[in-house]
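Thread: Modeling a multi-component assembly for a lab meeting

Hi all, long-time lurker, first post. My supervisor asked me to bring a structural picture of a complex we are working on to next week's group meeting, and I have zero experience with this. I have the sequence lines for every component (514 residues in total). Could someone generate the structure of the whole assembly? Inputs are pasted exactly as I received them:
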Amino acid sequence: MKNNIIILGGGQAGIYAAREIRQNDSKSNIKILGEENLLPYERPPLSKDFLLDKKKAEDLYFHSSDVLKNENIEFENISINKVDFENKKLFAKNDNVYSYDSLLISTGSENKKLTLDNNLKNDIYYLRNLEEAKKIKEIVSNKNKITIIGGGFIGLEIASSLSQLQKKVIVIEIGNQLMGRIIPKQIADLVQNTHIEHGNEIILNKQIEKITKKNDDYEILLNDNSLIETDFIIAGIGSTPTVKLFENTNLKLDNGIVTNQFCETSIKDVYAAGDVSNFYHPFYERNMRLESYQHAQNHGICAGKNIAGVKTEYTSIPWMWSDQFNLNLQLTGICDEYDEIIERGNDINNGVIYFFLKNNKIRGACGVGIIGKVGRDIRITSKLTEKDTIVDKQILSDQNLKLNKLIQK
Amino acid sequence: MSEENWIEVGSTDSIEEEDLIRFDHQDKTFCVYKLTDGFYATDGICTHEAVHLEDGLVMDDEIECPMHQGIFNIKSGEALSPPACEDLKTYPVKVDNDKIFIKID
Ligand SMILES: Cc1cc2nc3c(=O)[nH]c(=O)nc-3n(C[C@H](O)[C@H](O)[C@H](O)COP(=O)(O)OP(=O)(O)OC[C@H]3O[C@@H](n4cnc5c(N)ncnc54)[C@H](O)[C@@H]3O)c2cc1C
Ligand code: FES
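Re: Modeling a multi-component assembly
Sure thing. I ran the full set together rather than chain by chain. Output:
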């Protein structure tokens, strides 16, 4: 049967879904509606190699327009501002109307904004898309002392890149450690030390009271009355799923669009994938929302299969990375449900990993090390997690013993 | 193809099965693998970003990059999984008297 399939949101989950649908369904119309006037592209380099000029905008696209043309996938640059689920229609600002038989929502997430009481809104920069990355790159070339508000992954990656561009960087974090409580404090401290060694200033446990503009510069007043002078401010204070469009509809929302393990939402023929969805994970037997490259890709593929009628459960073990200076940090599984923590290694040069276990089985792990040093072990950990293996803790804790011994058993 | 392009890497028992070793020659780095059906060689650096594949995971016929889990087929060099999208160069391998040689062009 020939269906009209619409993918709302032309990011990573959207493009992977589109191509997967085409793999399984040669007839249906597939149309991606994306508000960025760009084919789907990778976001991870925006805070890293793009700022460092090691990658250009044209290096970031997942696929060329030829690939889309060959697979008969249409991409339209349009912003949707109203949905009518009952009549299966989407409405754009310019009065265009799009009818669908099946809809995938892959609208991603958006940056939280600082609440500022004066009109400094246009003075604070955020990073989510290529346009913002270009702007930041252009402006920082004339700035010297840059303040990053928020010590999460994106803020720290920007801090690392700007430091490599010889800028003086200050990071202000409200919590008592970097990267949030999900990351073991010891790992956060190792990353913090690396930033400090490279000359970045890290301020923890401080809140912004007030930002004042002084000519072309700014003064940031912290809650301990200290003042920071800076000539450019970037905020990375977390993100929220892009769901405003659905707030007054009967689509079930709860920290994103609630989906089951088949990427199905509460409304028939409407699916969601990627950053925007709060999906049920059958292995962990709970819902979760992830913002990661691997998840956007795999979840998009899974949604694509289900839309094309190939019923497929989403069972991927979560995985994400962050690159800062010469460090590569990786997270797998979930690290907030455990009865035991096991540490492997203590030297960042050889890699340090914390495993989170429950009933002698790994639920998740977080590791950091000089580039290349934790990836293999983290990958093996994902496999051990997925297989629900009861692990030999001696092997986990001893860096001289190879983890793949556990997998072969 | 001249004989001298065959470079000795080491003895066949220097690599465990389903594993790899790094081999540096002049200013280049290679990875030499022992798979169930023999020895193979590829460039030693991921095509995505400059990270050594020696720290990656070998599974069946694939090498997975330790940095972002890009995956390559060891025999063909084909990039199988993003963020890796550029293929990895492969090199001919021969075994002579329990010694492994790779042919570098
Ligand atoms: C700076 C940065 C660095 C990152 N680094 C890493 C990293 O190192 N490792 C990692 O694992 N992950 C990283 N991520 C996360 C990863 O990139 C995201 O999880 C992934 O892009 C999510 O894909 P998605 O398809 O769900 O959403 P997105 O890629 O965000 O795509 C959503 C698209 O939908 C569009 N859209 C939204 N609403 C509408 C509408 N109403 N009409 C039309 N279009 C609409 C948006 O404009 C956007 O183009 C990073 C993200 C950012 C921003
Ligand atoms: S460096 Fe190998 S996949 Fe990125």
